[in-house]
């Protein structure tokens, strides 16, 4: 009996100010090209997983690091939107970076990446939103019949920031990697934005990986079910590791 209460207690204590479920959500998506229009999951998320009356904006920016997203003004727009919409909506800010931060030329160390993620979350919270950190979407580059795990450091850093600061997170990296491993290279290639682009997603790929994001969110934060549009067929295919 006691054990069955533990997960509930954990959720409640991690998110003491969890908003009421019956208010629509405004989603603000912060990230790089793997979230952005024309290559990421963000537009598919807003178009196919968000229930009526809820809404949002995809601020994913191709090439962005956690540093350039702030320096270039994108983060300022996210915070401005939190202030604009918070009286009518519960605001959730998804924060997903790593693909560009990890490049040697980025000028962003893993420690700076962690500090930048934490600062995004702190500022989103104080502006009136609920931030959710996402570990970075997997690339779909194969070595033999397995996906190359080349975002492990960014995944670990994101989880570490979330856990040590009680910030909500979902592990998109592992969920997306598991799915791509399950369907294999040939099926995974059908989501490529261009035939040789194993990072960015075409429109249908955006819908499929947005469904993975949405299912992870609802699994972790059940109160989001009422503001989420389901696609049980697609969710079942993903869960079974079958091509969609
Ligand atoms: C959307 O908002 C309208 C007007 O406030 C309300 O009547 C309706 O029930 C809402 N629909 C959903 C699905 O929440
Ligand atoms: C739901 O998923 C199925 C299976 O992938 C797909 O064929 C269908 O178009 C999706 N429905 C919507 C409304 O997106």
From TrEMBL:
Keywords from the named record: Hydrolase, Signal
SUPFAM superfamilies listed in its UniProt record: SGNH hydrolase
A Pfam match: Lipase_GDSL_2
Domain SGNH hydrolase-type esterase: 30-205
Secretion signal span: 1-16
Coiled coil: none
GO molecular function: hydrolase activity
Superkingdom classification of source: Eukaryota
Keyword Hydrolase included in the entry's annotation: yes
Family matches, as PANTHER family: PUTATIVE (AFU_ORTHOLOGUE AFUA_2G17250)-RELATED (PTHR43695)
Protein name, as recorded: SGNH hydrolase
């Amino acid at each position: 009996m006691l054990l069955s209460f533990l997960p509930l207690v954990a959720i409640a204590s991690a998110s003491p100010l969890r908003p009421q479920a019956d208010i629509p959500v405004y989603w603000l998506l912060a990230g790089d090209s793997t979230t952005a229009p024309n290559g990421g999951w963000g537009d598919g998320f807003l178009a196919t997983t968000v229930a009526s009356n809820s809404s949002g904006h995809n601020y994913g920016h191709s090439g962005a690091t956690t540093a350039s997203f702030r320096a270039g003004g994108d983060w300022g727009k996210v915070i401005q939107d939190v202030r604009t919409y918070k009286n009518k909506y519960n605001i959730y800010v998804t924060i997903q970076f790593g693909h560009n931060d990890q490049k040697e030329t980025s000028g962003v160390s893993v420690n700076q990446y962690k500090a930048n993620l934490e600062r995004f979350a702190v500022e989103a919270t104080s502006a009136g939103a609920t931030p959710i950190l996402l570990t970075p979407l997997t690339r779909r580059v194969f070595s033999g019949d397995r996906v190359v795990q080349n975002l492990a450091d960014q995944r670990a850093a994101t989880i570490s920031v979330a856990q040590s600061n009680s910030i909500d997170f979902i592990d998109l990296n592992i969920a997306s990697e598991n799915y791509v491993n399950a369907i294999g290279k040939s099926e995974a290639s059908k989501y490529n934005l261009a035939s040789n682009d194993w990072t960015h997603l075409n429109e249908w790929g955006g819908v499929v990986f947005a469904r993975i994001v949405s299912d992870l969110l609802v699994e972790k934060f059940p109160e989001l079910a009422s503001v989420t549009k389901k696609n049980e067929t697609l969710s079942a295919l993903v869960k079974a590791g079958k091509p969609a």
